[in-house]
Amino acid sequence: MNADEFRARAAALDTADPLAIHRSALVPIPPGLVYLDGNSLGRPTARGRERAIGVLDDWATRLVEAWDDWIDLPWVVGDRLGGLIGSAPGQCVVGDSTSVQLYKVVHAVARNLDRPTVLVPEGEFPTDRYVAAGVADALGGRCATFVVPPGGIAADELADLVRHHRADVVVISMVDFRSGARLDVAECTTAVRGAGAVVVWDLSHAAGVVPVHLDAWGVDAAVGCTYKYLHGGPGAPAFAYVRASRQAEWRQPIWGWWGQRDQFAMGDRYDPGIRMRQFGVGTPPVIGLALVDEGVALVESAGIAAIDAKRAALGALTFDLVDVRLGSAQVETPRVADRRGGHVSLRHPDASRISRAGRDRGIVADFRPPDRLRLGLAPLSTSFVDVVTAVETFATIVDSTALDAYTDSPGRVT
Predict the structure, then answer these.
(1) Which residue is catalytic, options 104, 293, 374, 386?
(2) Residue 263's pLDDT band (cuts 50, 70, 90)
(3) Choosing from 6, 35, 103, 125, which is the catalytic residue?
(4) Could you report the per-residue pLDDT of 67-93, keeping only the tens digit for each?
(5) CB–CB of 283/264 below 8 Å?
(6) Which of 146, 227, 239, 279 is catalytic?
(7) Does the reported pTM lie above 0.90?
């Protein structure tokens, strides 16, 4: 299939795309720009922008009385987001950064254990590794690491690692931020529990782009960011999920006034709120929560099943294009649809320079040191023609002398 045939195939897919109508719900980007970095930072929603301005207007006109509408947002938005990840009400809160949410949850799980061992992949996202090590250190335990192959790890292998390291807690992502490989959460959760440990799942690269069913899968705890496929914006508040049956047992370590049972009594001693109320900490970021709420609303409107179907189709087109037009790149992401997330990772010795040359030509993708080029195929913002344009541009860059004008440079890690 040549370039014209690929473009015709993509155009037909775009014409039939049931999600195309939702692109108008996003704030427009500059004409001619192809944005393939929604797996790192999703595009803003138009309603989110209006809602943020509305919060400012409420602040300006109602002043402190506006808190009557804002005070419960961490749990109201948490329940709404929870519906997208298969959580019944009362098990999800939104409010702190991903790092803080992860620390709270991992510490809560491990605090009653004697010198706990926390197990985390050595190539896991940095904050996950740092938090795992920090919690282990704070509780007098240890942090152990293991290697996850690019294609992911099987449930029985993970359970064997738990037994080998005598681990108490495992911290791991559902979708790997580098390769895009996706784990079977239900099988891994059951296997690890059978081996005597608890898994805390990081859903940052999964929520809003693939189906997640935390309650049905038997998950005990999870966290995730909202600024990727949930359109919450840079630094948007993250979420934490704790299964209802575990909430009384696991007390989180940061005793702030928003987690106090009667916060406005200003009591002398900390008395944690019941259920997920105790996972509040400080005054919540109201504008950020409003943006998350509107991002979740957009994903709800589009439907996770339709988003997942387009995610799979975008990936399939990308693989076909790369095989034909960018043969010098190695596809790292699993090709089976239900074993990958929303981005495709390519390995190429000139990935850094390809990424920079692409940006200068209007193609925004993502470079991961030392040689990964990630193509973020966010279904609500990415068209099939976008994918063809991007890969064709990369192929032209590689086949010409264009790379001679660039030197290698470090990449961002988000």
Answers:
(1) 374
(2) confident
(3) 125
(4) 999 999 999 999 999 999 999 999 999
(5) no
(6) 227
(7) yes
